[in-house]
Amino acid sequence: MDVKIYKDLMGENAKWAAETRATLAGKRARMINLIGSPGCGKTLLLEKSAERLRPATRFAVLEGDVETTRDAERLASLGVRVSQLLTGGACHLEAKLVHAALNDLPLDALDLVVVENVGNLVCPAEFDIGEHAKVAVLSVTEGEDKPLKYPLLFREAGALVLTKTDLLPHLTFDLEACLGFVRRINPALPVFQVSALRGTGMDAWVGWMRRGG
Amino acid sequence: MDVKIYKDLMGENAKWAAETRATLAGKRARMINLIGSPGCGKTLLLEKSAERLRPATRFAVLEGDVETTRDAERLASLGVRVSQLLTGGACHLEAKLVHAALNDLPLDALDLVVVENVGNLVCPAEFDIGEHAKVAVLSVTEGEDKPLKYPLLFREAGALVLTKTDLLPHLTFDLEACLGFVRRINPALPVFQVSALRGTGMDAWVGWMRRGG
Question: ipTM of the assembly?
Answer without folding.
Answer: 0.91
